[in-house]
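> run fold Hydroxyglutarate oxidase
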Amino acid sequence: MTTTVDSGRPGRHRFFAATVAPVESHDTDLVVIGGGIAGVSVAYELAAHDRVLLLEAEVDMPVHSTARSAATYIPGHGSGPFRALIDASGPRFAALQTELDTPPLLSARPVLHLGDDDEGAAGIVAMLAEQRGEPNAPVALDPVQACRYAPVLRRPPRAAAWTSGSADIDAIALHDGYRRGLRARSGTVLRGARVSAISRDGSGWLVRTAAGHRVRAAAVVDAAGSWADEVAALAGVPRAGLTPLRRTIAACPVPDPSVLRVDGSPLPLIADAAERWYLKPEADTVLVSPADRTPQAPGDARPDELDVALGLDRIGEVTTLGLRSVRTAWAGLRTFAPDRAPVLGEWPDHPGFHFVAGQGGSGIESAPALAALAASMIVGRPAPADVALDPAVCSVTRLR
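> ok
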């Protein structure tokens, strides 16, 4: 039986690995379960002061939601707690670029929010009212000006809003930077290490994997994405009530790629304010989504052809892009708590088992601040001063 571990050799944006016989037993302070953006970011933060071992079920990483995201930083996106985390993450992305020695993590791309019918117009009104006074909130935009910013629109919308501080995120560079940073802090990553059992071990925990590892740790951090509740159940810990929802994306060639630039600047991300579709230019294609939210059990999500067709139809009604084919399509799972806030911390009667879950559609854009907040809760330190969010709002205990 073999497993794969990071070798820790230097290199930018490469994953160096060696295949070796699995080490049967590990002792560590904290074991993090899950190698997506939630897992590697919180593991990196924790490794500043403690011994950390990260377990990833897949041989490659990232594979699931992190690798399948449209990866955009949008101030004002999501529920109130996520908006606070996204706002705090903006300066942290810039700091991480230097700290983790990555290429640019953010590339400016504004977001145009459209209300093309009654439902969309109502969405614009609600968005502006809810976020009034918040940092970097969207601003109302004249419908005619919306067509100047996005000449691909068939007609002026009934209502529009503009978010100027948004950006594309290099999610792979961010993930790779966190992973290398974890190794630089003497953390360990074991890939192909699917957790099969978790049990109490005195005052700590014993985690077993299907590959034969036995990991003893003072605390467990459950950052397993759509599997987070399943991991909790393995440990005999109450579920948080998380719901994975499938989101479909298709990359579509644009017959005239010149329309993807406006006066030398990239076309904005364009999103329906009623959350029924969005499009995002990427190279010579447009990423198209029907913004589907289909409940699905944790697993390897696959795109549904009907969802892809629905996204193309909706965008064809609003734009003149003339999308006629699909180069590739994929789907990922976005996992939500009932109130759509993050799920962090531990149940009082199950000390030492910590959730870092429920990131929904904001896992990458909120990762820097969320990881710092989660790490402070895990080790019992004060919340970061730049995160304007009461940790109790995110605590799993609110879900009882």
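Residues 7-21 have pLDDT under 50 and may be disordered.
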